[in-house]
Amino acid sequence: DHSESTLGQQALYHRLRSAPVGDHLEAFESLVARFTADDALRERAQLALACLQDPQGYDVWWLGKPGAVEQPAWFRVFPLLTTAALLSLAIAPFWPIAAFVMLFVNMGVRYATHRHIVAMAQAIRQGAPLVKTAAALAFLRGEEIEPVVGALGADVCRLKRFRFISGWVNSNPFMVSLDSNQFAIMFGDFVSVVLDYLNILFLLDGTAVYFGARDINVNAGSLLRAVAAIGEVDCALSLASYRASRQDWTRPEFQVSGPAIFTDLCHPLLVDAVPNSITLGPGRGVLVTGSNMSGKTTFLRTVGVNALLAQTVNTCLAREYKAPVFVVRSCIGRSDDLLAGKSYYIVEVEALLGLVRLSESPSPHLFLLDELFRGTNAIERIAAGQAVLQELVEAGDTRPPHVVIAATHDGELVDLLPTLYDSYHFGDAIGADGLVFDHRLQSGRATTRTAIALLRQSGAPARLLRRAETVAARLDRELIDAGPENGREPRRHGRD
Predict the structure, then answer these.
(1) How far is residue 208 CA from its own chain's centroid?
(2) For residue 81, what is the enclosing H or E element?
(3) Range with lowest mean pLDDT among 174-183, 186-195, 446-455
(4) Cα(54)–Cα(372) distance, rounded to whole angstroms?
């Protein structure tokens, strides 16, 4: 988030969550490219956006929603009382008591209605700087970026009256009507104090809310389009700044079919992230084994977040990204749902069945799964995991081939799915200070067994170590006894 304004933050948040594909991605990329190549253009846009940093700007979008701005019949009292106060002030030299009574009545009304208009007034007062900014950004023109910035033209013209009304709800209308200059700065505080008293005595903010609400109801569409255009411009600036801050990014290449090729993928939130590469064939999956902390879950998140970045902001942390447009779905980091009275296992089952139903979709999916069914016993965990993994990756008559990446400790899954899933692992070793990881993805299944060695290095009691070694030796003998020479497939204990 390198945005300049509240609207830019909202647009960036929205775009990153507009999966599977962000709005007008080609036009958005063209705007980013302009800001990247032209420093003067970028600085001009940043200066225009600088006046939209008020936290109340987060509520501007709400004004344009159908039916959001209510206008009760009693709101008509505001312009009537404002007019009456001005008339009483005009006749004050001839009838002073009228002006005194009228101003006293307005103060009472202001106090009584404050809570009804304050929220709306705070949102409406953002209209003046918003329309001013939209007009200042109107220099951004071009056919290739028109889908993003088109509303900065005709729609802004329809909002001129709203800008004028909004200016009088502000604590200082001159500051939003004039450019920043020495005159405005010098008299800004003085005008703000004077206007506060005028609002109390003449109900100017209530009157502005009355007329502003009417104007919003007429031009709600123009307001929302202007808000979106300003936010997208700031979002493009933010992305251009982010790209300039890193060297390890690339633009994705989307393809209709073929394998997904990820070269030197990195997680954007990790400092000195270890890059990893993988090729994902359509209709095939990947099983990633390895010990805890070796990097399995981080790798799943790295693939997922780069797919989302590629498809929403046309940027990914990789040397090469070539893949179809995926619908990304994951089952990572489950927990008990105490409020719903559901155990960890039930929550996981419901999530996985949701993914199975999604696999019937005609769109290609990227499924990311971490430690399937770890809340149940070993036999059912492996059997259920194998069934779900096979169901997700096998293409039916009405659905495209999906891609599945699953992290697991169960090496048995590698043996059960050899024709549908490729095997990879993250290695580990015992060093002087404990487990040592290089966090590099390697082909094949994990073969290291470090749990007992780690217990020994950590100072576990000798009797505990002897018991563990005895049980491990017995299980190894069972593996040999259950081998192929006895007519059975060996059970490999893939867990540490």
Answers:
(1) 35
(2) helix 77-90
(3) 174-183
(4) 46
Quick check: 146 pLDDT over 90? yes
- C-alpha distance from residue 118 to each of 56, 112, 146, 466 (Å): 12, 12, 36, 73
- The tens digit of pLDDT for each residue in 203-251 reads 877 888 888 888 888 888 888 999 999 999 999 999 999 999 999 999 9
**Taking CA 393 as the corner, what is the angle to CA 389 and CA 394, rounded to the nearest 5 degrees?**
115
Tokens coding 443: 């082909």
What are the C-alpha distances in Å from 311 to residues 12, 154, 317, 323, 327?
13, 30, 13, 10, 10
**Cβ(426)–Cβ(439) under 8 Å?**
yes
Cβ 237 vs Cβ 46: under 8 Å: yes
CB 351 within 8 A of CB 281: no
Instruction: Kindly tell me the sign of the dihedral angle through the C-alpha atoms of 373, 378, 380, 386.
Output: positive
Question: Any idea which residue has 């005709």 for tokens?
Answer: 154
312, amino acid identity: T
What is the band of 492 on the pLDDT scale with cuts at 50, 70, 90? very low
Nearest CA to 415 among 440, 445, 452?
445
pTM: 0.80
- How, if at all, do strands 434-436 and 429-431 pair? antiparallel
| Helix, strand, coil share of the chain (percent; to 5) | 55, 10, 35
Are the CB atoms for 209 and 75 separated by under 8 Å? yes
CA separation for the pair 491, 483 (Å, rounded): 8
3-class SS of residue 180: coil
CB 5 within 8 A of CB 13: no
77 beta partners: none
- C-alpha 373/C-alpha 184 separation (Å) is 65
Q: Two tokens at 218? A: 């007429």
361-379 residues labelled b (16+ CB within 10 A) or e (exposed):
eeebbbbbbbbbbebbeee
**For 70-83, what is each residue's pLDDT tens digit?**
777 788 888 888 88
CA diameter of the chain:
117
Counting Cα atoms < 13 Å in the Cβ hemisphere of 228 gives 19
For the ranges 66-70, 290-294, 358-362, the lowest mean pLDDT is seen at 66-70
Residue 287, both tokens = 């099983």
Select from 37, 254, 19 the least CA-distant residue to 142.
37
480, 492 Cβ separation under 8 angstroms: no
Beta-carbon contacts of 460 under 8 Å, excluding residues fewer than 6 positions away, are none
Q: Which residue has 């001159």 as its token pair?
A: 174
Q: Where are the beta strands (DSSP E) in 242-379?
A: 253-254, 260-265, 276-280, 285-289, 320-323, 327-331, 365-370
| Dist CA 302 CA 96 (whole Å) | 75
**Omega into 20 within 30° of 0, i.e. cis?**
yes
